[in-house]
Amino acid sequence: MQNLQNEKTIVLDYFNDVDNCKNEDLAEIISNHTSENFHMRCTHPFNEIKGPENVANQLWLPIRDSFKPIQRRLDIFYAGINSLEENQDVWISSMGHLMGVFNKSFFGIQPNYKSSLLRFAEFYKVENNKITEGAIFLDIFNFMQQLGLSFIPESTGLVCVTPGPMNHKGLKFELSDNGESIKTLDLIHRMRDRLVKGSKMKSFKEELELDWKKDMIWWGPGGIGASYTIDGYTRGHTKPFEEGLEFVKFNGHVLSSAEDDLGGWFGWPNLIMKSKGGYLGLTSPSDIESEMRVVDLYRRDGDKIAENWIFIDHLHFLKLLGIDLLEKNKSISRK
């Protein structure tokens, strides 16, 4: 049984110290927990950030400045060995919401002075008792939808505050059974290979039923929304996704790991796609190839996948196609 409890403690301590320190101490706190070459992969408009001081000033201070007081509400937390690397790197994966009162403009999005929830997925690699690299996906598109911004089209799925696992066992603070972790990793890799290598990113009901429960829940990203059951997933996600986009290339992932019944991955970027027109109600046909940075987290129930949480950096993807939603927001009012 793999014991990754030390790495869990290191990241939990990092969360606690970063969340509770004063702004003027933030860079020092991050530096205390991280290596000299610490760097982060972040969703647009943050993108790649190198060095503890820059992570403090360019990532966390803008968030803390707009949402006060900030509170991290974890729904998923687990540790795993990166199955994509030979040197057995340990990564901590987490997901939840950052909660605060939205009281100051956030990259041009005007505040509503109400309690707000910003959906996140976060990943950290731990080496020699230090955090050496990380990634954070913020679902800013979902946040814009919660605000009812007038230029955002209606999603094909449900727009909501995304809950954690249905079994309420998403926080793996204790030691887990490695055998269960292997079952989860094998299942999601089988599903991945079927989708990418066999179907070229096209989902067929007959294949979905091999890996997914019929009452699956697909907690989709901002711009798409959530879908329930295989039939609902086909209507709410795969049909508009496949009709609006042309698959170009699968780049693989940076991380793929699992613990107990939870597992998943992220890529930077995972996919190269082209617009066939109409995707999210925003795009036009284009020969431009654009990048999709994607997170998939899964919950296994028995021998099938029961739930899937997805983040897509749609702001980055769309900007490469010439659609800058943050700029568009500055000139268009709320509903």
Q: Tally the beta strands.
A: 15
Strand content: 25-35%
SSE topology string? HHEEHEEEEHHHEEHEEEEEEEHH
Principal-axes geometry comes out as globular
Head-to-tail CA distance between termini: 54 Å
Give me the side-by-side strand order of the main sheet: 2-1-6-5-4-3
Task: Report mean pLDDT, rounded to a whole number.
Answer: 94
- Tally of helical runs: 9
CATH topology of the largest domain: Nuclear Transport Factor 2, Chain: A
Give the radius of gyration. 19 Å
CATH structural architecture of the largest domain: Roll
Unreliable stretches, pLDDT < 50, 5 or more residues?
A: none
Number of domains: 2
Quick structural gist:
The protein is of the alpha+beta class and 335 residues long.
Provide structural commentary.
With 335 residues, the protein is of the alpha+beta class. Helix content is 31%, strand content 34%. The strands form 3 sheets. The chain has a 6-stranded mixed beta sheet, sandwiched between helices. The protein has a 6-stranded mixed beta sheet with strand order 8-7-15-14-11-10. Strands 9-12-13 form a 3-stranded antiparallel beta sheet. Helix 1 runs antiparallel to helix 2 and helix 2 crosses helix 3. The longest helix has 21 residues. The radius of gyration is 19 Å and the shape is globular.
